Structures are given as structure tokens and as C-alpha cells.
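Whiteboard transcription, Tuesday session. T.W. wrote the C-alpha cells on the left side:
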């Protein structure tokens, strides 16, 4: 399903029922509150639910997973305490299928490949370093990529994640010489004007925690020239 419901909170709702809500995060939004003090997406969703259903008190909302601040795309929240632990378990057991889009300037060495690295996180730099062989305190990271479209000066990659490591896609693509457009931290030569990077959580498939039916979400990328060329 690829649809967007906009509202006065400037929130793009992709799917909602009694138990879950899925939104399309804009680049620059933070999913949960942090030291910046900026209003997080979770609070925007709470406000949306409060106004939509005229809820008098606090609104329950469970954060299931996150996206990096400069990244756009699908974020899933739980609307009930019943659904949250089930969704958490689903993600922990890697039973949710996540597909991303990334735009890179340098084509990867192969048209499609499985990348296996060992990522070591540097907390001070908020950065993960990719190693070919296991090093102390590293975690194994696996993804599959394929080139799906050649743009004028860039390439669109589709990526399936097999593990969910810190900055995994950004770090692994940088390690093969294909940093994501705008991602200065991982080796791209200049930033995007809005501080975004061209990484988009495009697709999510999972079994509904209560209804036990498959939910399949597709998120349109940001309205911007390069992304527009990807879907034209």
C-alpha cells in the first residue's frame, strides 16, 4: 500500500488501525526526544491521535524502532500496550522485512551483492566503522543491495537489511566506496542543503501483532528532484 494521509500536524500517516500507526518520517525529524530538545516525531503522533479521537488525558504511544535523523521513511508505532511487546519481539527476532532506498554517486563494484562486515561503534563520534574481519566489540552486519536505476549522475540502490546495526547501511556502503549522497559523516564530499541524506526507509512487511495478517507498507520518498526521478 502506497498512500499518504496529510493533516494539520504535517504528519504523513501511511497506515493506522486500533493497534498500530505507521508514519512517513521527514528527513530532519527525530523519532524520540534527545539532548537537542527538538520536538520528536513521537510527540507529533501523540498530538495527532489526541486531536483525532478527542482524547482527554495522556495518549499512549510505544516506540518500536528508530530511523537516523537525516533519513526519511517508514516509522512504526504501537497504539496499545498489548501490541508493543509483540512488535518488539517481531523486530528483535528479525521477522520484520525492511527495504531501503539509497542514492549514491559511485556505483558499487557489482550490480547486486550481499555485504558482510563487522561494525564497531564509536560512541564519541556517533559513528560505526566497518571491518572485513571481526574485531573486539564489533557486531556482524549483513545486507543485500541491488542497483535498480541509473540516474543522470547517481545510482539508486535497493537494500534489504538482514541485521539492524547502528548506521549499518551508511557504514557498509561507505566501506565499498559508495557513500550515500549528502552523508558527510561517511565520506560523501558535500552535504545536502537541508542536512538530509538520500536514504529512505521504503518498505516494511510484518505480521500484525493482533490480527495476525501481513501488513505491507510502502512509503513515498521526499518530494525532491532526485527522489522524483527515482519514481518517475
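and on the right, the sequence the group agreed on:
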Amino acid at each position: 500500500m502506497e498512500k499518504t494521509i496529510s493533516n494539520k500536524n504535517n504528519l504523513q500517516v501511511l497506515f493506522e488501525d486500533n493497534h498500530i500507526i505507521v508514519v512517513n518520517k521527514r528527513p530532519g525529524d527525530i523519532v524520540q526526544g534527545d539532548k537537542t530538545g527538538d520536538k520528536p516525531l513521537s510527540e507529533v503522533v501523540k498530538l495527532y491521535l489526541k486531536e483525532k479521537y478527542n482524547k482527554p488525558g495522556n495518549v499512549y504511544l510505544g516506540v518500536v524502532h528508530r530511523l537516523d535523523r537525516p533519513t526519511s521513511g517508514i516509522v512504526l508505532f504501537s497504539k496499545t500496550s498489548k501490541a508493543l511487546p509483540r512488535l518488539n519481539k517481531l523486530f528483535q527476532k528479525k521477522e520484520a522485512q525492511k527495504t531501503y532506498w539509497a542514492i549514491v554517486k559511485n556505483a558499487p563494484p557489482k550490480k547486486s551483492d550481499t555485504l558482510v562486515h563487522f561494525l564497531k561503534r564509536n560512541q564519541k563520534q556517533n559513528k560505526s566503522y566497518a571491518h572485513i574481519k571481526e574485531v573486539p566489540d564489533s557486531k556482524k552486519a549483513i545486507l543485500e543491495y541491488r542497483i535498480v536505476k541509473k540516474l543522470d549522475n547517481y545510482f539508486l540502490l535497493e537494500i534489504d537489511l538482514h541485521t539492524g546495526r547502528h548506521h549499518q547501511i551508511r557504514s557498509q556502503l561507505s566501506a565499498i566506496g559508495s557513500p550515500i549522497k549528502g552523508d558527510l559523516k561517511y565520506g560523501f564530499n558535500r552535504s545536502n542543503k537541508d542536512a538530509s541524506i538520500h536514504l529512505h526507509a521504503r518498505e516494511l512487511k510484518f505480521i500484525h501483532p493482533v490480527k495476525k495478517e501481513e501488513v505491507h507498507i510502502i512509503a513515498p520518498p521526499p518530494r525532491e528532484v532526485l527522489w522524483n526521478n527515482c519514481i518517475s
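Someone added at the bottom: Residues 13-231 form a domain with the Pseudouridine synthase fold (CATH 3.30.2350.10).
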